[in-house]
Design goal:
Blueprint lengths: L1 H12 L2 H21 L4 E5 L5 E5 L2 E9 L14 H14 L9 E6 L6 H11 L4 H10 L8 H10 L3 H8 L2 E5 L3 H11 L8 H21 L5 E3 H20 L11 H7 L3 H8 L4 H23 L5 H25 L5 H13 L14 H13 L14
Parallel strand pairs: 3-4, 4-5
Antiparallel strand pairs: 1-2, 1-6, 2-3
Helix pairs in contact: 2-8, 2-9, 2-10, 3-6, 4-5, 5-7, 9-10, 12-16, 13-16, 14-15
Length: 392
């Protein structure tokens, strides 16, 4: 019970959680712009606003991100600092010499805003109110004057002419993003993340990459500007790494065949092929394990849909072609040797030091090549005794 009290007190008094939640919200918004902006765009964080889009060095979109960890809280109430401080910041941008290039001003929240002014801004977006009508509501809805810091900000904003305010309001959009899952789904769609990989892993990786890159830029005294192409490339590289990881067979130590399975396959053709070249018992036992391990992993990777059947056939063809070359070389190098000795060389050169790729990816588990060879031998597609004659 005491621990619960401590946790509850920490949750009520700590400001870290809301701040961190706000930072993550801001970075995820930056990621969304990186995913959806034009190829030549760059996205800035904390310059000249929470998030901004730049093209040819000029700001074309600015965004204020307002996040709350309190469910149901209206962040943009008529006399809220969030609303009026945002307008104050935007007026400075709007009145700058390059203001014509900035055509969108986004006010993004994770809650629903329903007070008079926020509602009027939404109605302007749908065409139900004109910018001039919103200006009138801005002046009338700001409430009675008081001696407070927020009043100083309100007075500064309303000190502008109706025309200046209307021209800014014409560019303002309110975006309400409520669900974390919905935001993540939108990011997944915007980046066109491969559905075969875990999208949350990709997005978390991109957030880490973005955080690290921004930190490095800021520590170097530079503006936090990220190239969209660099972000998309990072996304694709992370995807590819996950795909490679998914395609990687498990280490041999994780696949231990049972004794019953070992006994069951001792009478199979691939074991007979090993006997024709008088393979030692330890080589036969190793080959049996490799055969079983390969079959287990092949089934797993195929069942998961990671490796199509066609790739296994193509891989078998590559191994068979390589085996033919091995047979030719051994016959040329050992013309006087017995078939048993030459067979031992063919077996060793085929299965000991070669690692065949899998679906275009390097495959460093030896059992995946040696075991595949033994499976081919089990089908009489390869063999070790050069004098062996395939039936039919």
């Amino acid at each position: 019970m005491e621990a619960v009290k401590i946790v509850g007190t920490a949750q009520r008094s700590s400001t870290a959680a809301p701040q961190l939640s706000g930072y993550i919200f801001q970075l995820e918004r930056a990621l969304l712009h990186l995913a959806t902006a034009d190829d030549d765009a760059m996205v800035a964080v904390e310059y000249p606003d929470d998030v901004a889009i730049l093209r040819a060095g000029k700001v074309t979109l600015v965004e204020q991100d307002k996040n709350s960890v309190q469910s149901g809280r209206d962040i943009l109430r008529n006399r809220s600092k969030n609303l009026w401080r945002t307008l104050q910041i935007w007026l400075k941008i709007h009145e700058s010499s390059n203001s014509a290039d900035c055509v969108r001003y986004l006010m993004v929240t994770n809650t629903t805003s329903s007070d008079t002014i926020a509602s009027a801004l939404k109605k302007r977006m749908t065409g139900d109110l004109t910018p001039g009508e919103v200006v009138a509501l801005l002046r009338s809805g700001s409430g009675p004057k008081s001696k407070s810091k927020i009043q100083e900000i309100i007075d500064d904003v309303l000190n502008r002419s109706d025309d200046v305010l209307a021209s800014l309001i014409a560019k303002i959009e309110i975006v309400e993003s409520h669900s974390i899952a919905e935001s993540r789904a939108r990011l997944t769609s915007a980046f066109a993340i491969d559905p075969s990989v875990h999208s949350e892993t990709i997005l978390d990786s991109l957030l880490g990459w973005l955080t690290r890159l921004l930190r490095e830029l800021w520590q170097a005294g530079q503006v936090g500007v990220i190239d969209r192409k660099a972000c998309v490339l990072q996304c694709r590289r992370t995807e590819q790494a996950l795909v490679r990881q998914r395609l990687l067979p498990r280490p041999s130590r994780e696949i231990v065949p049972g004794e019953a399975d070992r006994e069951r396959v001792k009478a199979r053709p691939f074991v007979a092929h090993l006997g024709r070249v008088e393979s030692e018992d330890d080589i036969i036992l190793e080959a049996i394990d490799q055969f079983l391990q390969f079959n287990i992993e092949k089934h797993r990777l195929t069942a998961q849909g990671d490796i199509p059947d066609g790739e296994w056939s193509a891989r078998g063809d590559r191994l068979t072609t390589r085996w033919r070359g091995v047979v030719r070389r051994v016959k040329l190098e050992l013309p006087e040797a017995s078939d048993v000795l030459r067979g031992k060389h063919i077996l060793a050169r085929s299965t000991i030091d070669h690692y065949e790729s899998l679906s275009g990816q390097a495959c460093d588990e030896l059992y995946m090549t040696a075991g595949h060879y033994h499976r081919l031998a089990d089908q009489d597609l390869v063999w070790w005794d050069p004098s062996y004659q395939k039936d039919g």
